[in-house]
Amino acid sequence: MNGYERIQAALSGKKPDKTPIMLHNFMMAAKEAGYTMEQYRNSPQIIAECFIRAIEKYQYDGVLVDIDTVTLAGACGVEVDFPQNEPARSHSGCLSSLKETEHLKPVDIQSYKYANIWCEAVSLLKEYFKGEIYIRGNCDQAPFSLATMLRGVENMMMDLCLEDENLIFALLDYCSEATTQFIRLMKEAGADMVSNGDSPAGPSMLSPKMYEKFALPYEKKVCEYAHRLNMPYMLHICGNTDIILDQMITTGADSLELDYKTNIHRAEELMRGKTVFSGNIDPSGVIALGTPDLVKEKTIELLEIFKDNPRFILNAGCGIPPITPSENISALISAARKF
Fold this sequence. Notes:
This protein has helices at 3-11, 26-32, 37-41, 44-58, 71-75, 113-129, 143-151, 153-162, 165-189, 208-228, 245-249, 264-271, 283-288, 292-305, 326-338, and strands spanning 22-23, 62-65, 80-81, 89-90, 134-141, 193-197, 233-237, 255-258, 276-281, 312-316. With 339 residues, it is of the alpha/beta class. A hairpin with a 7-residue loop joins β3 and β4 (89-90).
């Protein structure tokens, strides 16, 4: 099997010949290729080059094309900071109140420079690997996460408790349009899978009841949209998601990318036969700062849990830091290939 076939097998619930590996390593890939994040985010050719080099060096199966977590926010009017050596970031929202939602400019993700760069990089990678490697086009933020960026985290949390729910849903509808537009662009770019992050919707910020009311319906909506385009869909939420895992499964997502803080045994049990588990080795404490022996140990521990479950893709629990030693990635992949 090639890389594409391994990941496709996992998504289909079939046993691949080897453990499928798809790393969240865009920052490390850029650094190893000798580029700053500023150079990386501004050139689809450089983005493609970084992943091509990483694939050729480490021989893993799928590319997760990512740039930052504020591209949709920037396209919707949030002020974005572009550090030279870090991913882009935002510091505050663009709405002083929920009532300003009606004055937001119409959603047009295609007109935003960085969304186009992101998609063009996906097209270049798809053309280069010619179906040998699986290409996951991350589509930035799910609607609740994007709404939190437009309003500002603290303001959004207060809104959920104090404001008219109709105003909240109006903002979420606006954000859903932005998210689905990006998914459509990724489909047109040739991605094999699309994904979104929705970490502000996790238990570290929302109660399960609030998640069910405000985030879950929109996760379902964008997942259904991806499926209408015949695209597999993956959802990522950082932190310990134990108490909402059963709800996350109902989104219909083909795969859930889960943080190392989530109980792996509980996740395997709940997701077995339903949803692919993607993850979830600690990206900082183990992959970046651990020894190769520790990386190998934690990789084998994870693989043991899923040894009889084909719905599994090996990854870190979140983005791999750029300071990660190359020997640690080699140890992770070597352990998986020998398991």
